[in-house]
Design brief:
The structure holds two protein chains of two kinds. By secondary structure, chain A is mainly α. Chain A is built from three helices and no strands. Chain A starts with a helix and ends with a helix. By secondary structure, chain B is mostly helical. The longest helix of chain B is centred in the last third of the chain and has 34 residues. The chains are: A mainly alpha, B mainly alpha.
């Protein structure tokens, strides 16, 4: 029963998270955005948060992509 | 168009992809085991799903303060969107195999067939369809609730999700085979960009960000994430292209 519950929880969690590091980085950016709204009013914290998240998308994809490419080059089969 | 249009579009696109996946599973089980068990599994999953969604949805919308709800749901939608975007980018760059409904169909058929032989009862077909419809349905419900939590238009979001499910189910009945013609990865790019933008927008609202001109700000976020999406693909394709050129030389 416990194993099934754990498996179900893992499946539901998998809807949101596949890579813990990138998920934690995204949450850290959100936390930074929240902290910024305490100090600065208006839309600036929101756009700063969005820009950081967009950079995260690019950085994460490029790093992962290069790792995958490197793995392919070293093992062409 | 306004926020209602955005809400409908996001709910429709997100729900359509999930509905295609659920339909593929049900069709695969139906083809191998007959239609009774998977249809029963589908109905049971929809009933359980409705109970979960109604009870949790009611609890969330009445007990949790609106800013907290927006921040939490925005964060979850963002994670959801980033996950889709990441996968779609790697697929477009040719680094990960494209999602293949035919392969998923064949795998489900093989799994259901083997389980049937081992068990000798109709439960495997029921269970596979139940699990598929429930999990994919949970994603649809999440998308619909997330859209509704921000726009305050549960009707519009629900309509988007429902329209997607009905459209996909109708296509499934008409085509009677996996919907291979639906360009899933293109839809995943669009949904990933939309969900990441909406998630950032809602989380920001929950934190107290005052977005100027509501929908215009959302459009800026969409362009930002779309730019990140295109830039990532270009950066990932460039080394592969230069390797091909140097190999040819």
């Amino acid at each position: 029963m416990l194993r099934r519950l754990r498996s179900a929880a893992t499946e539901v969690l998998g809807l949101f998270v596949t890579d813990w590091l990138s998920a934690l980085l995204a949450l850290a950016i959100l936390a930074g955005g929240w902290a910024l709204t305490r100090a600065v009013s208006g839309a600036a914290p929101g756009f700063a948060m969005a820009a950081a998240l967009a950079l995260l998308v690019v950085g994460e994809a490029v790093l992962r992509g290069r790792r995958l490419s490197a793995a392919r080059v070293s093992d062409p089969d | 168009m306004g926020s209602a249009g955005w809400g409908f579009g996001a709910a429709f696109l997100g729900s359509a992809v999930e509905s295609v996946e659920a339909l593929t599973i049900v069709l695969a089980v139906g083809v191998t085991r007959g239609w009774r068990a998977p249809l029963q599994g589908t109905v049971a999953a929809l009933i359980v799903l409705a109970a979960v969604v109604l009870s949790l949805g009611q609890l969330l919308t009445t007990r949790v303060p609106q800013p907290v709800l927006r921040a939490v749901i925005g964060g979850l939608v963002l994670l959801f969107g980033l996950r889709w975007l990441h996968k779609a980018i790697l697929r477009s760059a040719g680094l990960v195999a494209l999602s293949d409904e035919n392969a998923r169909f064949a795998k489900t058929v093989q799994g259901a067939g083997m389980a049937a032989r081992l068990a000798g009862v109709d439960w495997p077909g029921f269970a596979v369809a139940f699990k598929g419809v429930f999990l994919e349905g949970l994603e649809v419900a999440f998308i619909v609730f997330a859209v509704a939590a921000s726009t305050g238009q549960l009707g519009v979001a629900g309509l988007g999700g429902l329209a997607a499910a009905v459209t996909v189910a109708t296509l499934g009945v008409v085509l009677r085979r996996p919907l291979t013609r639906v360009p899933e990865n293109t839809i995943k790019h669009a949904v990933g960009v939309l969900l990441a933008s909406l998630g950032t927008f809602w989380a920001g609202e929950g934190f107290g960000v005052h977005w100027p001109l509501d929908v215009v700000s959302l459009l800026v976020l969409v362009l930002l994430f779309l730019g990140a999406d295109r830039l990532s693909i270009a950066l990932l394709r460039a080394p592969a292209r230069s390797r091909a050129v140097s190999k040819a030389a």
